[in-house]
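Sample 3 of the quickstart, ligand shikimate-3-phosphate:
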Amino acid sequence: MKNVFLTGFMGCGKSRVARCLSAWYGAPCLETDQMVEQQAGCSVRELFETKGEAFFRQLEREVLHNIPDYAVVATGGGLPCQGDNMDWMLSQGHVFYLQVPAGLLAQRLDTPSSRARRPLLPPEKDLSDYVRTTLAAREPFYLRADHIIDAGVRPTPEVVREIAGIISTLP
Ligand code: S3P
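Result:
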């Protein structure tokens, strides 16, 4: 059984989908952000503030490349766009891109708890411009995934069922 990697922009629902999918897949649910936090001994925000983004990306790559076989992995939003991360995921498992329109992402990301734990979000009330520009730059990487899933306005169980259905047909 292979790893399942869930990729996509911040706020696309990777963590929620990963939790449900791991129960179905019978495999542990891992989150690269949490693994980085465990390794660093501080939050992602603190890591960005004290050591900078480059250091975070280095740790993020390290945890990704040390993920055990057979897990459902929710990856950080920027992870697939860095170095060889996407190539590595494609060689190690099934990669899904949870695609959500920029406007919806901007709305979902505008909550105090979301802003508190995401150091890259700008302080502006309206995140639409930031999300549109950043998503446009990142989408070429996300679109390299094996499977592209519409994760817009659909309920999580429906998204999980679609992914489970695809996995069931794979070797
Ligand atoms: C990031 C997304 C975050 C986290 C870090 C950087 C990004 O994860 O890895 O703040 O570059 O998009 P989520 O996608 O879980 O918010």
